[in-house]
């Protein structure tokens, strides 16, 4: 059984109130437009995950609400404090701890952690997509990786295949 790991960076955050702690910043107007666009793409392309693990920050919570609106197709979403500004090792441990029955896992989080994770895991895939991801993992961008086997514990650097890397800008073109 093939496993799919999707990495979604939160949508663009607001800097309107510079006194707010980083984890309390919500989405900007641009972010509130990009998140539903990515949600429609995920639904239209059949990329709905079985489980979402999301950072507990305000902007990732708001991103999840807009990407996965309430309804019958909304996957379970677990908010994890550990994902907020997580290291590569922390993110890898979360993935490796995923239940065997989950076929498609999505992590909604932050940079630089998501970009570092993607670059560490990817061993193959379209060179243009890999180069774009290596250059920049913008807000609301989605990387979809294929992992072999049926055991999340086997997730390791260099073993994933990048299936696609999509940004809100690429969908607007």
Describe the SSE topology.
Elements: E1 3-9, H1 29-44, E2 51-55, H2 58-67, E3 77-80, H3 88-96, E4 104-109, H4 113-121, E5 122-124, H5 127-135, E6 142-147, E7 160-166, H6 168-172
Helix pairs in contact: 1-2
Structural class designation: alpha/beta
Kindly state the number of beta strands.
Answer: 7
Q: Provide a count of the helices.
A: 6
Which descriptor suits the 3D outline?
globular
H-E string: EHEHEHEHEHEEH
Distance between the termini: 34 Å
Strand fraction: 15-25%
Give an account of the 3D structure.
The protein has 173 residues and is of the alpha/beta class. α2 links the parallel β2 and β3 (77-80). The chain has six helices and seven strands, in the order βαβαβαβαβαββα. It has helices at 29-44, 58-67, 88-96, 113-121, 127-135, 168-172; strands at residues 3-9, 51-55, 77-80, 104-109, 122-124, 142-147, 160-166. Strands 3-2-4-1-6-7-5 form a seven-stranded mixed beta sheet.
Question: What descriptive keywords fit this protein?
Answer:
globular, alpha/beta, 6 helices
Short description:
The protein has 173 residues and is α/β, with parallel strands linked by helices.
